[in-house]
Amino acid sequence: MIFCNHTPGEKPSCRWRRRKEARPEEIIDAALALFVEKGFSATRLDDVAKRAGISKGTLYLYFDSKEAIFRAVVETLIGPQLQQIEKLVHDFEGSNQALLRQLILGWWRNVGETGLSGIPKLIVSESGNFPELSEYFVKHVVKRMRKVFVGVLERGVAAGEFKPCDAQVAARLLFAPLVHAAIWKHSLQPWDDTGDVPVYLNLHLDIFFNGISSGAAKNE
Amino acid sequence: MIFCNHTPGEKPSCRWRRRKEARPEEIIDAALALFVEKGFSATRLDDVAKRAGISKGTLYLYFDSKEAIFRAVVETLIGPQLQQIEKLVHDFEGSNQALLRQLILGWWRNVGETGLSGIPKLIVSESGNFPELSEYFVKHVVKRMRKVFVGVLERGVAAGEFKPCDAQVAARLLFAPLVHAAIWKHSLQPWDDTGDVPVYLNLHLDIFFNGISSGAAKNE
DNA sequence: ACTTAATAACTGACTGGGCGGTTATTAAAT
DNA sequence: ATTTAATAACCGCCCAGTCAGTTATTAAGT
Lengths: 220, 220
Fold this sequence. Notes:
The structure is a homodimer of 220-residue chains.
Chain A lengths: L22 H16 L6 H8 L3 H7 L3 H26 L4 H17 L5 H9 L4 H28 L8 H19 L11 H16 L8
Helix pairs in contact in A: 1-2, 1-4, 1-6, 2-3, 4-5, 4-7, 5-7, 5-8, 5-9, 7-8, 8-9
Chain A binds a DNA duplex (30 and 30 nucleotides) through helix 3.
C-alpha cells in the first residue's frame, strides 16, 4: 500500500513512477468498481485513489471533479461494445433466431461476465442524481441497442420466422433478462446464487422463441 | 413551508400540531420517495423532514438514525403485499396459467403503480452499503415470492398444463419483466416512455405461456 | 560518463462546507 | 400546572477539492 506504481515484476526502488498514459484507464477501472459497489455518493475519492494506486491529488491531474470521473466511466466503456454488436449483426449469416441467440449470449460473455456488467446498476442507481447522464445513456446506448434488436425481430417477422408482434415491446422483453441478470449479479446475487446465468438465459431464449415462432418448426 | 402539520382542510391557526400517531407513516413515505429518487447517501435528512412536514429533530423522536428509517421503509411496506399475494394463491380457482397472469398483473396494479414500485430500485442501489438488509430482503421477500411462483408452476407441470422445466429458473424468468419495469419506471423511464407497462406485461405473458404450454391448447 | 538544471508527475496535509446527530427551548395538549 | 411533541440552533465529523512541496524523469552542459 505504501510502495506502488510499479509495472508487474518490478522491485519497489522508488516511491512512485510517472505513468501518465496508464493513469486514466486505471482510475476509471477503480472508480467503476467502487461506484458499482457503493454508489456514487458513498464512494470516497480517497478510496478510488487508493485502489488506483495513486494519491487523491493525482485524480485531479486527470479529471476535473468526481462527477467528471463518473461520466468518463460510463462514456468510455460502452462505445466499443456497441460497435462490436452492430458489426456482428451486419456480418451475420443465418436465421434471425440464431442471430438473436448469439447476440444475447455474446452480450453476456462480453459484458455480463466482465466489469462492464456493473454499469446498468450504476446508471439505475444514480439516475435521479444525474438526469443528463441518464438521458445520454438512453439516447446513445439503450435506443441504439434496441434498434439492433428491433431490426432483427422485424426482419424475422417479415421472413415469416416470427409471429407478427410489436417489435419494440418484444425487443425490450428479449433483453430484459440480460439487464436483470447483470443488475442481480451486482446486488442480490451473493445471497441467492441461483445457478449460473447462461442456464437462465438459455431457458429464456427457448421459451421466448418457442412462444414467438410462427409455429412452423418446433425445437424440442 | 413555515406553517405545517395541519390535517388537510384546516387553517393554520398555530405553528404546528401534535400528531404522534401519524408521524411514522408520513416519515416513511417521505423517506421512500427521496431514497428512491436520490439513493440513501445522497438523501439529506433535512429534506426528508421537510417533505414529511416536520423538522429534522422530530425524526429522532421516532427513529434512532438515518439507517433505522431506511430499514423501516423496507420492512414495513412489503409484508402486507406478500400476505395478500399468498392469500390470492390459496383461494384461487382456475387454471394455473390464469392464476399466474392474475398474480403478475395484480402485482403491477398494487405495487408497480404505487410508491412501492421504488423499493426494488432502492434495494438494488444500496445493496453494497447494506448487506444485511439485502440478505433480509432476499430471504424474506424474494425467496418467499419465488416460492409462490414455483409452487404454481410445478402444479402446472404436474397437471400437464406446462412443459416440464426447472421451475426455479422459470419463476425468475416470469417475474423478471416486473422487476425490470419497476426499476425502469424509477430510473430511465422519463427519457424513454415506451408505452404503458400492462401492454408490455401482456405480451410477456402471451409469449411466456405460449412458449411453456404443453401444446394442448393454444390461445389466439 | 557524470553532473546539474529544468520539467512535469505525484504527494499528502489542509480547508471549507455540508450533513448526521444532539439538545436547550418553546408551545400544544390535557 | 404538568407533560410531551416539536422545534431550531448547535456541534463535530467527514470528504471533495486545493496547493505548496517532493521526487522521478528528461535534457543540457562539461
